[in-house]
Automatic annotation (TrEMBL):
This is UDP-galactopyranose mutase. InterPro entries: UDP-GALP_mutase, UDP-GalPyranose_mutase_C. Residues 152-363 form the UDP-galactopyranose mutase C-terminal domain. It comes from the Bacteria. Keywords: FAD, Flavoprotein, Isomerase. Its cofactor is FAD. GO terms for cellular component: cytosol.
Length: 392
């Protein structure tokens, strides 16, 4: 009945499904374990009528015209330009640290002096890693880097990843930039915005095709079997393509041990007032147990003067409990070595493709995984064995 089976209806699964169904003329079955589509981008109205991102805020941004044009087929956009501030002991400063931030941290005279130094040495509209600034011979420039490191990045990273200061690799943290610009936007990508009617609506449009069948609340492992290099669906060998976008360790019953992730607890609150913080997002970099607060009305341009909904994010270790969602792969040599064992096992199945954050154990922005998914689908339509190519 089906040419391809896709496990997961998030960014990767929905994109591949539409491409194979529309351009490849394939009959596609999408199996989704959750009771909704859109993966972690899923949004819905809360009990107060506020559109919230159920799994935390997701902001679309890209320089890839192909990806932008493709998604624009399924949604109109609200022109949202994302700006973030850090709460540093009660003072709100723009992130990434930029020339506007200098004016808030230093005296007017000192800020002007530092601005001139940074522009003369690095040029306008450049992003300079703080590790490079830390190694500067100029004490003032060096001081900026250490301020950014200690006030904006260090404690935030400790909370996000559950690490002690001595466990944080300075070569990694050193990639955090100082942006020599007056541009307060978090991203400078050409295309930015939020789906006008929400992410869920965009995914509904993407999956609305006569060749696509979606089954929600369906655990693929209950109707499929992966055994001796062959894949079975409902007891019969399936020789079409299987694109798996879930946890690869879970697919193989944690044979080599569970892959470590960080997860999040979300604390949603509604307030009977027009605004809670006056902006979409505030990072708490030096105090509080949570890492950030999102106020959704500023993401989605909702007009509601009566109430507003926020969410606080509390990072913690992923234990594998069914109530938890794995969000961030913990990338280190040991974990990559463990993942590679699962990847090698997956390669025993010639018609199996691992795709997405969980299946590939790596971080993807929305645009990157949509772009990758379009490439994978194109390859599959060309009868290339992407289960071999993409999993090397």
């Amino acid at each position: 009945m089906y040419d391809s089976i896709i496990i997961g209806a998030g960014c990767a699964g929905a994109t591949v499904a539409r491409k194979l169904a529309e351009d490849g003329g394939q009959k596609v079955l999408v199996l989704e374990k959750r009771n909704h589509i859109a993966g972690n981008c899923y949004d819905a109205l809360d009990e107060y009528g506020i559109l919230v991102h159920v799994y935390g805020p997701h902001i679309f941004h890209t320089n890839d015209k192909i990806v932008n044009d493709y998604l624009s087929r399924f949604t109109k956009w609200y022109d949202y330009q994302h700006e973030v501030v850090a709460d540093v002991y009660g003072k709100l400063i723009p992130v990434p640290f930029n020339l506007n931030t200098l004016k808030l941290v230093y005296s007017e005279e000192k800020a002007a002096e530092l601005t001139t130094k940074l522009i003369n040495k690095y040029g306008m509209e450049t992003k300079v890693p703080i590790l490079e600034l830390m190694n500067s011979d100029d004490e003032d420039i060096n001081g900026i880097a250490y301020y950014v490191y200690n006030s904006i990045f260090l404690r935030y990273t400790m909370k996000q990843w559950g690490q002690k200061p001595e466990d944080i690799d300075p070569t990694v943290t050193g990639r955090v930039p100082v942006f020599i610009s007056y541009d307060n936007r978090y991203f400078q990508d050409k295309y930015q915005g939020m789906p006008l009617d929400g992410y869920t609506s965009m995914f509904e449009n993407m999956l609305n095709h006569k060749n696509i069948t979606v089954q929600l609340g369906t655990d693929a492992k209950k109707c499929m079997e992966f055994k001796d290099g062959k894949i079975y669906y409902q007891g019969e060998e399936f020789q079409g393509n299987v694109i798996f976008t879930g946890q690869v360790d879970n697919l193989f019953d944690n044979e080599y041990g569970m892959l470590p992730y960080r997860t999040l607890d979300f604390e949603f609150e509604n307030f009977k007032e027009k605004s809670y913080q006056g902006r979409a997002l505030v990072n708490y970099t030096v105090d509080q147990d949570y890492t950030r607060i999102t106020e959704f009305k500023y993401l989605t341009n909702q007009k509601n003067d009566e109430s507003t909904t926020i969410v606080k994010e509390f990072p913690k270790a992923y234990t594998g409990d069914t109530s938890e969602t794995p969000y961030y792969a913990i990338i280190n040599n040991d974990n990559i070595a463990k993942y590679n064992k699962y990847k090698k096992k997956a390669e025993e199945f010639g018609n199996l493709v691992l795709l997405g954050r969980l299946a590939e154990y790596k971080y993807y922005n929305i645009d990157a995984i949509v772009g990758k998914s379009l490439e994978v689908a194109t390859g599959l339509m060309s009868n290339q064995i992407f289960g071999r190519i993409y999993n090397k």
